[in-house]
Amino acid sequence: MAAPRIVSLLPSATEIVAGLGHAGNLVGRSHECDFPGGLGELPVVSRPRIDISVPSAEIDRQVKQAARNALSVFEVDETMLAELQPDVIVTQDLCKVCAVSLGEVEQAACELTGRPVRIVSCSPASLADIWTDIRRVARALGAIRQGKALIDRLTLAIEGIESQTRLIEPKPTVACIEWLDPPMAAGNWVPELIARAGGVSLFGEAGKHSPWLELEALLRIDPDVVVIAPCGFEIPRTLSEITSLTGQPGWADMRAARDGRVFVADGHHFFNRPGPRILETLEILTEILHPGRFAFAHEGTGWVRL
């Protein structure tokens, strides 16, 4: 059987495809797919409908305006997609802000002629869902054995970390922030990762969508640790906008701020990318929550102390 021609419209799916040994079969990618290395030569088949270079508050305004107009934040280049003649398109159906929506892909796929196209949609809200998505992609690519091996490797490593962190007491309370302005707490798989890293997640709920976060509630509950990892933002981008949050009255009086336990993490490559590097996200959290006990060498690249 000929190797499938794959288009990935989701960064985490691209990493799953690579983890299954099929990176060489990718023929197209989204504008945000940037890992593993070597993807730069692939044709880009998506683009944002909004200006993502502006500050967080303006991005939020544009996203809400798009929602009011019943528009996806991203669009598919249908002409390019048709030229690539994919056998498999991997997309998502979790968040219209994170990547091209399933509806956009289905509409674009209808324009393709001459060959059947299999659309694989990822919709993870938990670690278990991430494993399900890996299996789903593996099945579409005829890589079931590789999918099982990838999941086994990840779960074994995660269980190894958790076997150590569960013994640590007391467990620090943690506020993980997924957006700066307006503030949003991290939900979905992040609270589960915090628990496995030996912390107590205060705001987001495992398996549930990320909730908006009132600053007054954050100050009142006064967490031991604050991790700031905005969706789509690497560390330098977050640091350039951080005062929209840390400059608020009362921030400096929080326990985490006084104790030097406010951290900025790479929300683009790790926290908000539900693929194989979810393991690295757990490692980052473990290093942050238990300084001196774990050393996975992510400090300075995956996270920094504010």
TrEMBL record:
PROSITE patterns for the chain: FE_B12_PBP
Matching InterPro entries: ABC_transptr_periplasmic_BD, Vitamin_B12-ABC_binding
Coiled-coil regions listed: none
Domain Fe/B12 periplasmic-binding: 5-293
Gene3D superfamilies reported for this sequence: Nitrogenase molybdenum iron protein domain
A Pfam family matched in the record: Peripla_BP_2
Protein name: Fe/B12 periplasmic-binding domain-containing protein
